[in-house]
Amino acid sequence: MQNVLTRDNLLKWAPLLVLLALVLFFSVINPNFLSLRNFARLSISASPALMVAVGVTFIIIMGSIDLSMEGAVSALAVIFCYLLVWLGGSVAGLGCIAIPAILLLGAIVGAINGYIHVKLRIPSFMSSLAMGFVGTGAAVLMTGGNIVKIDDEVFRSLLTYRLLGFPLMAYVAFAFLLLGWVIQSYTRLGRNFYAVGGGEDLAHASGVHVKRVRVLGFALAGFFFSVAGLLQVAKLGQAESVTGANLMFISITSVVVGGVALWGGIGGVWNALVGVLIVAVINNGMIVIGIPDFIQDGLLGLLVIVAVVLSTDRRSVAFVK
Amino acid sequence: MSTFIKDFIEREKISRRNLLLAAAAGLTATSMPRMFGPGMAQADAGGWSLAWSYRDRASAYWNAIVSGGEAYTESLGLKKEDMTNLINEGSSEKSLADIKAFLAKNGGKGAIACDANDSPNARPVAEAVKEAGGYVSTIWNKTDDLHPWDIGDNYVAHISWSGEKPSAQAAKILFDAMGGEGGVVHLGGIPANIPAIERLNGLKVAQKDYPKIEILDTQPADWDTTKAAALMSSYLTKYGDKIKGVHCANDNMAYGVLQALKAEGITLPVVAFDGNPEAVDMVMKGDLLATVFTNPHWGGGIALALAHQAAIGKFKPSDEPKEHREFYGPSILVTKADAEDFKKKYLDSTPKYDWTDKWGLSAGQIEYK
Question: CA B259 to CA B265: how far, in whole Å?
Answer without folding.
Answer: 10
